[in-house]
Write a structure and sequence with these properties.
The complex is a heterodimer of chains A (about 260) and B (about 240). Chain A contains 12 helices and no strands. Chain A has about 260 residues and is an all-alpha fold. In chain A, α3 packs parallel to α6. Chain B folds into 2 domains: about 160 residues, Rossmann fold; about 70 residues, no CATH class. In chain B, the strands form 2 sheets. Chain B has a 6-stranded mixed β-sheet with strand order 6-7-8-3-9-10, with helices on both faces. In chain B, strands 2-1-4-5 form a 4-stranded antiparallel β-sheet. Classes of the chains: A mainly alpha (about 260), B alpha/beta (about 240).
Chain lengths: ~260, ~240
């Protein structure tokens, strides 16, 4: 049992070290949501009126509304990017060393996902600290209560990314994933606008948003930040995580792309 | 018991068969050189031995542990140096080694002792706090060998480990591998296509188009083909058939 613990802590430690060594990654991860908050939200504040909706008990500014969605945006981009980078890593890089470890492969993959999730969560808290000074101030206790919700969402997105990476041949396909997975997941969710607004605009778009697991991730974090619990969001996130992670582990092959093509072709 | 036993191993990429019924063993305390031209199937074999590819046909045993039935026990007995470096360039030598120790489930104190011992053996103790990015090719290879030996494996696999090294570093690497065989009684399986890396005491395997065409000591192979030059034997055995 101890061997598993040492292995898990070793993988976490390495991810944190790498994160510390590549601090510029933090900057680029924060620029995107901060631009949305400071530029996009400022422009849309007047255009979009937000009614009183759960979990808020009063009228809120648009900036307040989108902060949980932007926090999840960090998890979405990081989760997908780190899972998809395994496509490259398992062909030539450090994943090969990870996979020649004597620990069970499923355990190693879950450790890697959790370690990547922990890095994303550190970035989210730095983002939330900046937004606090910008004026979006959820209850202090909410920041603590949101931690398990953020972990759940980070794992869900990492699992979706890992499952996708099993079907991708090259890292160059990341641009395709960006256009066909990340952007639709983000824009067709409750991250930027409440679903009732979407329902007013288009019923079929509303249904796509309502079926998008990322919407439930955003709501889970939003409710937790304001000290409320959204059981439906938790059930959807947990189920999506278990299903995607199981499918990803079962279909994982260290050199999948090489097995699909004969060498020299 | 041999450190490695390969029995009737075949492998295909889809419809294209790249390994044909391989049979060989690697004895302890000796370097086995796996020779072959490009696309002979050497890297595919290494991927099978390291569990990166599934075994489609045949049986592979590392120190008696079947790779299919007990992969975890087999991987415990295996140290690997891949052709392309798998070191983390932004981490220090010590951090790379301690990460590997953690993957094998060693406690931090146990890992510290092993890292100290291995760095001392590889004469790298003074570089432990250097980032790998700052090391030259020869030193990086030595760090990879130190890492591969941290868990005391019975079999060390090297996939064209001397590629990209200057002649002096290559020579030093070969001498180092043979001293490992003698001092620690481990088996080394080293793939290469450079004949000058072979020493008279080595066990030699020649792989051509996925088939093992020679298997034995240099003396035995020379006697079999009645030819003194291993280079000529290699040339003869790996000559491409006119289409």
């Amino acid at each position: 049992m101890k061997a598993y613990w040492y292995c898990l802590s070793g993988i976490f430690f390495r991810e944190w070290l790498r994160f510390w060594q590549q601090r510029t990654r933090l900057l680029s991860a924060l620029v995107r949501p901060l631009l949305w908050l400071i530029v996009f939200a400022a422009g849309f504040r007047a255009a979009l009126g937000i009614a009183i909706i759960a979990p808020y008990d009063t009228y809120i500014t648009y900036e307040t509304y989108i902060v949980p969605g932007l926090a999840c945006m960090i998890l979405l981009f990081n989760g997908m990017q780190s899972s998809l980078s395994m496509v490259y890593d398992r062909e030539m890089g450090s994943m090969r060393i990870l996979l020649t470890s004597p620990q069970p492969r499923s355990f190693l993959l879950i450790c890697k996902l959790m370690a990547s999730a922990s890095i994303s969560i550190i970035q989210v808290y730095i983002f939330l600290a900046i937004t606090w000074f910008y004026g979006v101030q959820p209850p202090l206790l909410g920041l603590l209560v949101a931690l398990p919700a953020l972990l759940m969402v980070a794992l869900m997105l990492g699992a979706i990314g890992l499952l996708l990476s099993n079907g991708i041949r090259q890292l160059e396909n990341f641009a395709g994933v960006m256009n066909f997975v990340i952007f639709p997941l983000f824009f067709l969710s409750s991250a930027l606008y409440p679903l009732w607004k979407m329902q007013e605009a288009s019923l079929w778009l509303y249904w796509i948003c309502a079926l998008n697991p990322f919407s439930y991730g955003v709501e889970l974090v939003r409710y937790a930040l304001y000290l409320q619990f959204n059981p439906l969001a938790l059930i959807v996130c947990a189920t999506t995580t278990v299903v995607c992670l199981s499918a990803a582990v079962l279909t994982f092959s260290p050199k999948r792309s090489a097995l699909r093509r004969a060498p020299g072709k | 018991m041999n450190a490695l036993e390969v029995r009737d191993v075949s492998f295909s990429y889809g419809a294209r068969q790249v390994l044909h019924g391989l049979n060989f063993t690697c004895p302890k305390g000796r370097l086995t050189a796996l020779l072959g031209p490009n696309a002979a199937g050497k890297s595919t074999l290494i991927s099978l031995l390291t569990c990166l590819y599934p075994i489609q046909q045949g049986q592979i045993k590392v120190s008696g542990h079947d790779l299919n039935r007990a992969p975890r026990s087999a991987l415990r007995e295996l140290g690997v140096v891949f052709q392309q470096s798998t070191l983390d360039l932004d981490l220090t030598v010590e951090q790379n080694l301690r990460y590997h120790a953690a993957l094998h489930g060693f406690s931090p104190s146990d890992a510290k002792g092993r890292v100290n011992d291995e760095l001392a053996r590889q004469q790298l103790s003074d570089r432990r706090h250097d980032k790998v990015r700052l090391l030259n090719g020869g030193h990086r290879r030595r760090v990879e060998i130190a890492r591969a030996l941290l868990h005391n494996p019975r079999l060390l696999l090297l996939d064209e480990a001397s590629v990209g090294l200057d002649p002096a570093s290559r020579q030093a690497l070969q001498a180092h591998l043979r001293s490992l065989c003698a001092e620690r009684d481990i088996a080394v399986l080293s793939t290469t296509h450079l004949l000058d890396e072979i020493a008279p005491e080595d066990h030699v395997l020649i792989l051509n188009q996925g088939a093992l065409v020679a298997n034995g000591s240099i003396e035995a192979i020379q006697a079999q083909y009645q030819q003194q030059s291993l280079a000529l034997i290699f040339q003869q055995l790996t000559k491409k058939e006119p289409k």
